């Protein structure tokens, strides 16, 4: 193999790795935050994720804010927890009517 071909291959590899590194630095500096700022200026969002908590590898609790009210969601099992607003009372079960008992009339 000619020495000039080896130098050319090493130089091409150096240029390629340099471009990949430059792209990584640019994405870190201007990537997600810049895109989020552009999107948030376009339109005000109704739904925000306030906080998340990983319970185990299959389940996660997510605290969301929807129209100014915070709500708690359990993801992973397909169930919701406490989806009522914080100020609203939780629905209580309706008591069933008590059975009417009648006393037998004494026979005279």
Automatic annotation (TrEMBL):
Residues covered by region (Disordered): 86-108
TM helices/strands, residue ranges: 6-27
Residues making up the signal peptide according to the UniProt record: none
Subcellular location: Cell membrane
Biased composition (Pro residues): 88-98
Keywords, comma-separated and alphabetical: Cell membrane, Membrane, Transmembrane, Transmembrane helix
Pfam families cross-referenced by the UniProt entry: FliO (PF04347)
Source organism, top-level taxon: Bacteria
Low complexity bias locations: 99-108
Keyword Cell membrane: yes
Major subcellular site: membrane
Protein known as: Flagellar biogenesis protein
Organism of derivation: Caulobacter radicis
């Amino acid at each position: 193999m000619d020495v000039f071909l080896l130098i050319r291959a090493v130089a091409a590899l150096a240029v390629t790795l340099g471009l990949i590194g430059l792209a990584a630095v640019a994405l870190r500096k201007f990537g997600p935050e810049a895109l989020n700022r552009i999107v948030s200026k376009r339109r005000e969002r109704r739904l925000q994720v306030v906080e998340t908590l990983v319970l185990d590898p299959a389940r996660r609790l997510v605290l969301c804010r929807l129209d100014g009210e915070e709500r708690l969601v359990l993801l992973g099992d397909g169930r919701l927890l406490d989806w009522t607003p914080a100020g609203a009372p939780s629905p209580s079960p309706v008591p069933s009517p008590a059975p009417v008992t009648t006393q037998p009339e004494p026979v005279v």
